[in-house]
Amino acid sequence: xxxxxxxxxxxxxxxxxxxRDGYMWFSDKFRRIFRHTWPIALLFAVLTATASALxxxxxxxxxxxxxxxxxxxxxxxxxxxxxxxRKKQLLPPAGSASLGAKIRQAGQxxxxxxxxxxxxxxxxLLTSLPTxxxxxxxxxxxxxxxxxxxxxxxxxxxxxxxxxxLIAGFLKAYVWMTIICPFxxxxxxxxxxxxxxxxxxxxxx
Length: 205
Prior knowledge:
mainly alpha; 0% strand; elongated
């Protein structure tokens, strides 16, 4: 079964097929992916919840540090997830390709990247709606306090906000993970094309 899965993945695809097959693979393997990656998703949730809390619950002046922490969380998530995928053999080795081959296929990398980021943006917006509502409520309350109004938020809202940030961050972790396989399939395509090119040149000799 594992060999069949490897043979299915290791073939040349168009950009559209890389995206489609990548997301299909992720959905088919989600239970196994979740079993191996939930600690990473929890770490990501803690980091992104902290990033959300900095400008909302502490000070709006911390917006830029919060954005930097969010970016760092995404990088850590993708690096650790790729490492787990390799260690648990969820994805077979993609094969090697020269820098020249990668440059020649740069357009495919860019196209797949743009589409994946658009999907991530839409899904992130959907999973972040409760977070955005809590942010808006907290900011409205803080603005009222600055204008001399009494605080209109009950005490439990602080902890409710933290819980909402954590849940949203956990869901966003798996949204970001979806981009790994489409990019992996592009790398496979580049490696397979170069392999076929070398084999063709050898046959000509």
